[in-house]
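Example (one chain per record):
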Amino acid sequence: QLQVVESGGGLVQPGGSLRLSCAASGLTLGYFAIGWSRQAPGKEREGVSCISSSDTRAYYADSVRGRFTISRDSAKSTVYLQMNSLKPEDTAVYFCYAADYCSGYVGNGINIWGQGTQVTVSS
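Predicted structure:
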């Protein structure tokens, strides 16, 4: 039953905000680095952000730096991706995953993927 589940996606206008959540089932998120990736229609999946297991380091892709913030709650049961100033090019299915560690904004040793949550940025 090891899995992570994403939620919080939806339809938002350009310039709007969404907060995505990644919750664990059958594992403790605090043991892992947690990353977010996304896949737009017709494109390959790309890394978005990664936060270390210790929460001492967070990394962002250039395309989202300054607009997105990754964080972990105090109980380390949920990881969030706060997305501000959303752009149409942010439209994608967003996935969270558990990894051994962050190598920049992409995790290494990815163990568990979620099924994704759709984010659509459109007027």
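Caption: The radius of gyration is 13 Å.
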